[in-house]
Write a structure and sequence with these properties.
9 helices, 9-stranded mixed β-sheet, binds adenosine-5'-diphosphate, binds magnesium ion, alpha/beta, globular, 3-stranded antiparallel β-sheet
Length: about 375
């Protein structure tokens, strides 16, 4: 049994070493919803090794498709459990003192909140990454309790118009400072409520409070949650019972604001200001991840509250996972295409048009023509 544990630890360790300093990109395509039946999809096909080909409905013939390559692509049928299992090694490494950042990027309605949290008041089956990650950290810390004592603390904040607010406080209007922490053990938002969680029910309670607070601060006209970033931060402190040495790990779970481009000629006032802030912080995030992927010596963390807050879990030995969320509807083609290009840029893997698949498609078209000519001839007879 101890051999098995060793073996498992070694496997996890290798997987984790491989992830260190790397940016992983998982693409997830949400299913059509029950009120979207009969809509056409922009997804041509996807493969098990992370390739995705999308088709531009307004173009015909050559160059109407584009291939992207990510670490993984989840199709519309992928379950919450499956998506979690593929993220699990990363999350578990927080108990070994790693800093990890997981975020969901994409246009409004593409499934960011579903992936991170699940639907409102989720069942066990459709809980998202946030819940599963915390449950898993509890389980794993319990299973190590003969050798390690762990403490798990949680903060939940929202960033809206470059202002940080506490979603676990009675006073969600108070603006909080983000501290620039150079040492890895620090807490970026010291004034945000910090809750010690001891069981899965504690987690559910906190998520519900944050959800209610987020909904309450939304005005009747604006669905503000799509225009703010929400950040769940999990601080883990572990003490080795024998040596009394301790380690710290941080996990950031981020549901980003919608990435859709807003037509500047059409919005004014509050809406314009929101759009500008979202643009600024998402491109700051893109710049940071890009700089990290390129192993650039200067990483521009200071350009937005979001990147300042995530700093500990983005640079150096931290591990980053981005969920790129896609709405399959052809009407979303242009947003989908720019979302995928953003993801491609930050992952550092760029591919051109899907030539090989284009040939297959040509062959398929020819076969179709042969079939219909045959049918025409048969009809004549
Ligand atoms: P976003 O947070 O990106 O704006 P949501 O997560 O709110 O998008 O998703 C939009 C809608 O699609 C919601 O009704 C959500 O429940 C549903 N949805 C998203 N992804 C899935 C999925 N994988 N399976 C089932 N329903 C989903
Ligand atoms: Mg959402």
């Amino acid at each position: 049994r101890s051999n098995m544990v060793l073996e498992e630890n070694r496997r996890l360790y290798n997987e984790v070493q491989e992830l260190k300093g790397n940016i992983r990109v998982f693409c997830r395509i949400r299913p059509f919803l029950s009120n979207e039946k009969g809509k056409a999809t922009t997804v041509d096909h996807l493969t098990d090794n992370g390739e995705l080909v999308i088709v531009n409905p307004s173009k015909h013939g050559k160059n109407n498709n584009r291939m992207f390559k990510f670490n993984k692509v989840f199709g519309p049928e992928a379950s919450q459990e499956k998506v979690y299992l593929d993220s699990q090694p990363l999350i578990r490494s927080v108990l070994d003192g790693f800093n990890v950042c997981i975020f969901a990027y994409g246009q409004t309605g593409a499934g960011k909140t579903y992936t991170m949290s699940g639907p409102n008041s989720p069942s066990k089956e459709n809980m998202g990454v946030n819940y599963r990650a915390l449950y898993d950290l509890f389980d794993l810390s319990q299973s190590r309790r003969s050798t390690f004592a762990y403490e798990i603390e949680v903060q939940i904040v929202e960033i809206y118009n470059e202002q940080v607010r506490d979603l676990l406080s009675n006073n969600t209007q108070k603006r909080l400072d983000v501290r620039n922490i150079s040492q890895a053990n620090g807490i970026a938002v010291p004034d945000a409520s910090l809750y010690h969680v001891k069981s899965p029910t504690d987690v559910i309670d906190l998520m519900q409070i944050a959800h209610t607070n987020r909904a309450m601060s939304a005005t009747a006209l604006n669905e503000r949650s799509s225009r703010s970033h929400s950040v769940v931060t999990v601080h883990v402190r572990g003490t080795d019972l024998k040596s009394r040495t301790s380690l710290n790990g941080h996990l950031h779970l981020v549901d980003l604001a919608g990435s859709e481009r807003v037509d500047r000629s059409e919005v004014i006032g509050d809406r314009l200001r929101e759009a500008q802030h979202i643009n600024k912080s998402l491109s700051a995030l893109g710049d940071v991840i890009f700089a990290l992927a390129q192993k650039s010596s200067h990483v521009p963390f200071r350009n937005s509250k979001l990147t300042q807050l995530l700093q500990t879990s983005l640079g150096g030995h931290a591990k980053t996972l981005m969920f790129v969320q896609i709405n399959p509807d052809v009407e979303s083609y242009s947003e989908t295409s720019s979302t995928l290009k953003f993801a491609e840029r930050v992952s550092g893997i760029e591919l051109g048009p899907a030539r090989a698949n284009k040939e297959v498609k040509d062959a398929r078209e020819l076969l179709d023509q042969v079939t219909s000519l045959r049918e025409a001839i048969m009809k004549k007879d």
